[in-house]
Design goal:
Layout (H helix, E strand, L loop, with lengths): L4 E12 L2 E10 L7 H11 L8 E4 L36 H14 L17 H13 L6 H6 L3 H6 L16 E3 L3 H8 L9 E8 L5 H14 L5 E5 L4 E5 L8 E5 L5 H16 L10 E7 L6 E7 L5 H19 L13 H12 L2 H4 L2 H4 L24 E7 L2 H15 L3 H17 L3 E8 L20 E8 L6 H13 L6 H9 L3 H8 L6 E8 L10 E3 L18 E8 L2 E9 L5 H22 L19 H19 L1
Length: 651
């Protein structure tokens, strides 16, 4: 059907036992130029993705046997420097594609990116998507994160990189009263014993000698530029009130000299000093940030940054650390500190949420969040009844994937069923809990980055603050026992959550509909919380002056504060390995119980990873075709019919 093609044959190329792909050998019409990218686009418009050849080889003529049939044995092996992607690299064709390919390569840590490479197959995730869009916006390409999910190749994303009307953010100092956001209401609802000691922290190893005066000025610039770092909170008769203060005259910064201590003494001294700093924040008078440089003599210095969670989240840390290094480098070279333009302020965002809470659009979500499926939830099994669930009793278990397994999880698994990493992790989690509890369903609280683009005039690409969303998720495997079917079921249930769960907190804490708010509050609450924090290997480049330290950051939360959940599960990728941390109270669960649960999770996850690496196992779910209004059974029959037709034509 393609006019520039005279003859063609498509074969299944088996370059190794575990590597199969479709390769098209094409003979172009005489005196016509065959453009492979255009041919690929044509096929993608006509065929399901799995039927589009991964590689194309242009020939003057097809080799034939004496009987006049195509001699498949002498067809040349396609030339590709990137067998892991199963397709040749197609270079950018214009400035926008070149810039996006450059950004992708830098963020994903790969040498080259072609315009038809899939972001998620290269190892991308929702957190790195924010980083990519941030850098694209800084480069003058106006894009939104949701567009990267809709257009997962450089070519596709470049095609929608058009000017977008965004409200120009206030570039000066932002101060004054700001409304509490849903996540902040959630925090104060916990009624903690010591709410001032509930922080996030980063301990960095410094790879070069720092100029203390320059470092101090760099910290000052962060406080000037990022308004959320100057938040203060006052308790009123009925609630809490927040205000963004003007910069303090005194910087929250200290320098401690531990150079005379031995290596073991230095570790203890850092942990002791860090814990003291962690407990020193003051919600009312401030500051909500502390910075300390530890001089370790012959060993690299360490830089500790402590910020109260009310003012920061995981995405914010990436912005802050990049800005700190940028400003330090500028000032140390005698240049003026110049950070990229501010994006939507935390203060403006809090106002937007107040309006959104009463909008007709959000009211449509009430039926979902008040669904009867939440009503009957069995509590989790416990080893000790009435045990204390406070920070002092929390213990941790960590499990890991190998580097090779992690690479497969990030780059191979998404290809099989068009999944994202959360789909796979949560499927394994539900399977593990099902083995433990005997129930096919699991109610858990899921944390998201909360930076959903529900307004056209906001841009969070460089916004610092606690924007996280927390919302309940009911995952039910039903009678499914097959791991692939389980993955499909969980994927569809996650895709069915409106606006990635952001509306739940807005309705619960900001809605004026008191009757339905009370109904929402009366529903069973999750006893497990899960959060995928993203890939931290991309936080610093090899040329950076910082790297993440493995030493203790001190105690980020007060020992007397109670824990909201029985189990707190956090997953992240660091040093090219997936690490899953399980936090539990030893007064409620035995260590052996959680170790067994974590091991069952790991085994279920590895089954999914191994299965999804099989080239024969590829498939789709209804959410991949949102306009088709299909159920899984109809989609499977449809794809099977196409697959049979394809096999008949090649035999």
């Amino acid at each position: 059907q393609y006019p520039a093609v005279k003859e063609t044959v498509v074969v299944v190329s088996e370059e190794s036992v575990n590597s199969k792909r479709l390769v098209a050998y094409v003979v172009p019409q005489k005196e016509q130029t065959l453009a492979i990218p255009e041919l690929r686009s044509f096929l993608e418009s006509k065929l399901p993705p799995y039927m589009v050849p991964s590689a194309f080889v242009s020939l003057e003529a097809l080799p034939l046997t004496p009987n006049g049939k195509v001699d498949r044995k002498v067809l040349p092996v396609p030339d590709t420097a990137r067998p892991e992607l199963g397709k040749e690299l197609v270079a950018p064709r214009n400035f926008v594609e070149a810039k996006l390919a450059e950004i992708w390569a830098e963020v994903l840590g790969v040498d080259k990116v072609g315009i038809f490479d899939n972001f998620f197959e290269l190892g991308g995730d929702s957190i790195l998507a924010i980083v990519v869009i941030t850098r694209a916006n800084q480069a003058g390409l106006k894009l939104a994160v949701k567009q990267l999910f809709q257009h997962q190749t450089v070519a596709g994303l470049a095609s929608v990189a058009v000017a977008k009307k965004v409200k120009q953010a206030e570039q000066g100092l932002v101060t004054g009263l700001a409304s509490l956001t849903p996540i902040q209401y959630w925090f104060f609802e916990q009624n903690l014993l010591e709410p001032h000691h509930w922080n996030q922290a980063v301990l960095l190893e410094v790879k070069q000698v720092l100029d203390l005066a320059v470092l101090e000025k760099s910290v000052q610039q962060l406080l000037l530029h990022h308004d959320a770092l100057r938040l203060r909170f006052e308790q009123t008769e009925s609630s809490w009130q927040q205000v963004i203060a003007s910069p303090d005259a005194e910087l929250p910064w200290i320098h401690l000299d531990f150079s005379a201590l031995s290596a073991s003494e230095q570790e203890l001294a850092i942990e002791t000093a860090a814990t003291k700093l962690q407990a020193s924040l003051n919600l009312s008078t401030g500051p909500l940030i502390r910075v300390a440089l530890f001089d370790l003599g012959q060993q690299p210095s360490h830089l500790l940054i402590v910020i109260h969670h009310l003012a920061v989240d995981g995405v914010s840390w990436r912005i802050l650390l990049e800005d700190l290094e940028t400003v330090y480098q500028q000032l140390s070279q005698g240049k003026k500190a110049q950070l990229p333009a501010k994006t939507t302020s935390f203060k403006y965002w809090s106002q937007c949420l107040q309006e959104y809470a009463q909008s007709a659009t959000l009211q449509q979500e009430w039926d979902y969040w008040l669904s009867p499926c939440w009503q009957e939830i069995a509590p989790l099994p416990v080893d000790f009844s009435n045990g204390d669930n406070i920070v002092a009793e929390v213990r941790n278990i960590s499990i890991f994937l190998t580097v090779k397994q992690t690479e497969a999880l990030l780059k191979e698994v998404p290809k099989a069923y068009n999944t994202q990493i959360n789909d796979v992790l949560l499927t394994a989690l539900v399977q593990a809990f099902s083995q433990w509890t005997g129930n096919s369903s699991l109610l858990l609280a899921l944390e998201g980055h909360g930076r959903e683009e529900i307004f056209d005039d906001v841009d969070f690409s460089r916004t610092v603050g606690w924007l996280t969303s927390i919302f309940p998720v009911m995952l039910d495997l039903g009678k499914t026992s097959d791991p692939v079917d389980a993955l499909k079921v969980v994927k569809e249930q996650l895709r069915g959550i409106p606006n990635k769960g952001m509306g739940y907190g807005v309705l619960r804490y900001l809605s004026h509909d008191t009757t339905r708010v009370e109904a929402l509050r009366s529903l069973p609450q999750a006893e497990v919380v899960f959060n995928y924090l993203g890939q931290f290997d991309q936080t610093f480049s090899d040329s950076s002056i910082f790297r993440i330290s493995q030493n203790s950051q001190g105690q980020t939360r007060s020992s007397g504060n109670h824990e909201t959940y029985l189990l707190n599960i956090n997953a992240l990728v660091i040093d090219n390995q997936l690490r899953v941390n399980w936090a539990y109270s030893e007064k409620i669960h035995r260590r052996s119980t959680i170790e067994r649960l974590a091991q069952e999770f790991l085994e279920a996850l590895l089954v999914l990873v191994t299965h999804c690496q099989s080239p024969e196992d590829r498939g789709y779910t209804p959410s991949d075709f949102p306009e088709a209004d299909l159920i899984q059974q109809d989609l499977d029959r449809f794809l099977e019919k196409i697959n049979r037709g394809s096999k008949n034509k090649t035999t």
